[in-house]
Design a protein that fits this description.
18 strands; paralog of FGE (formylglycine-generating enzyme); 4-stranded mixed β-sheet; 7 helices; about 15% helix; about 425 residues
Length: about 425
């Protein structure tokens, strides 16, 4: 509800009814409403509520899926995260890996400038670390080489995003999930550093939950080049369970589309199964890791500059749509549809699919950790989602934008991107 206006989908969620039922009542009461994103007055909303009470909801059905997460709600009672099995703890405590041999490329590397304003730390795109023989664990037999990455499209600061071809270098390894199907996770190394997390006071359309702007120092970590795809989800869902059962229901259209309708607990289970399967500690990224990876050294609202365009991101680009849908509905796109990436070589950090983080929700960054760790204490059980989705307006796809959502609900448009700590034997300079 904003300025005395109520959207149909908000009223539907509040009354536990489908959008089409609310629209039918509007037609019966001669209230003007064309779609579930239309706005009505508070008085009309009261009329609809009274009508629902009179009819007792006998002819109406409840929705089968919850609405997408929108603006943050008030804190709810905390729900403890399920404990991981002893097998995962043993991997974390006793995993020992031989030193990794790194071979540097002799060819000249072209790196974009990733200098941050208001920061004394310069972050540059690292070189590629490729497993020639993907096996379980990092070992001396898995020789590593530095190679030039694919051409990607990067943006430059300005009001309009500018397409600029850069030959980037990224450090990554391929985690094989299915040798027969040749399905793997592409994990990119993000070197540690310091950055300013949140939005400055002068950033347009920023929110109080993105403040105060604060400095965070992070260690190096690996993160998925793309969001987890539906094919990757299907493979991991067939692995032995660790804490809970995973299904592939409503998660299949084509293999390289991002998986969605994933609740936070299932996202954690996905990481736990990868941990057992590979012997490496997979997890969800912390909120500060996610924003650091998304910004890739930039301080602008988007990595690509002051704004986005539909050529470089998947979001609701219709100017008539403000947090809802008008006209044709946007849809998710394949994660490999384009070679557009930021300075760290990561794709789809703006739009396409919301991504779960490890952190619990907090209304502001007051007292937030400054070491890159997950902020999991507090009185709110909701978890953080980042990045915006295919149905989000441009302002909700900013690097600093935050939502929160119930960890038990499978929201449409919410998926995940996995993270992993580098082995101690791998020397990573900031």
């Amino acid at each position: 509800m904003n300025n005395g206006k109520v959207r149909i989908y908000e009223l539907s969620k509040e009354l536990g009814l489908e959008n089409k039922d609310i629209l039918a009542i509007c037609e019966r009461l001669e209230i003007s409403a064309k779609s579930h994103s239309s706005s009505i007055t508070s008085d009309d909303a009261v009329k609809i509520q009274n009508e629902v009470k009179q009819t007792s909801g006998k002819l109406l059905n409840k929705p089968t899926k919850p609405s997408p997460p929108r603006r943050p709600q008030r804190p709810a009672a905390p729900t403890p995260r399920p404990a991981k099995k002893q097998q995962i703890l043993e991997i974390r405590r006793h995993q020992a890996k031989p030193p990794v041999q790194e071979v540097r490329s002799t060819e000249k590397q072209t790196k974009p400038s990733l200098r941050k304003a208001r920061s004394d730390v310069s972050n540059s795109a690292p070189g590629i670390l490729r497993l020639i023989k993907p096996q379980k664990g990092f070992s001396a037999e898995n020789q590593l080489e530095s190679v030039t990455g694919p051409k990607v499209t990067a943006g430059v600061t300005g009001f309009k995003p500018i397409r600029k071809q850069l030959q980037l270098q990224t450090t990554h390894y391929l985690e094989k999930l299915d040798l027969d199907e040749n399905i793997d996770l592409d994990m990119v190394l993000v070197k540690g550093g310091t950055f300013l997390m949140g939005s400055p006071e002068d950033e347009l359309e920023s929110h109080v939950d993105e403040k105060p702007l604060h400095r965070v120092m992070l260690e190096a970590f690996f993160i998925g080049r793309y969001p987890v795809t539906q094919m990757q989800w299907q493979i991991v869902a067939k692995m032995p369970p660790v804490n809970r059962r995973l299904t592939s229901d409503n998660k299949v259209s084509e293999g390289d589309y991002p998986v969605k309708q994933v609740c936070w607990h299932d996202a954690v289970e996905f990481c736990d199964r990868l941990t057992v399967h590979t012997g490496r500690q997979y997890r969800l990224p912390t909120e500060s890791e996610w924003e650091f990876a998304c910004r890739a050294g930039k301080t602008t609202p988007f990595y690509f500059g002051q704004t986005l365009s539909k050529e470089i991101a998947t979001y609701d680009s219709n100017p008539a749509s403000i947090g809802g849908y008008e006209g044709s509905l946007p849809i998710t796109t394949r994660v490999t549809r384009t070679k557009i990436a930021n300075g760290f070589g990561l794709s789809d950090m703006h739009g396409n699919i919301f991504e779960w983080c490890e952190d619990c929700w907090h209304d502001t960054y007051e007292y937030a950790p400054t070491d890159g760790s997950a902020w999991v204490d507090g009185n709110n059980s909701d978890r953080v989602v980042r990045g915006g989705a295919y149905y989000s307006p441009k302002k909700d796809c900013r690097s600093a934008f935050r939502y929160h959502a119930s960890p038990d609900v499978e929201y449409d448009g919410v998926g995940l991107r996995v993270a992993c700590n580098p082995p101690k034997s791998l020397s990573v300079n900031r």
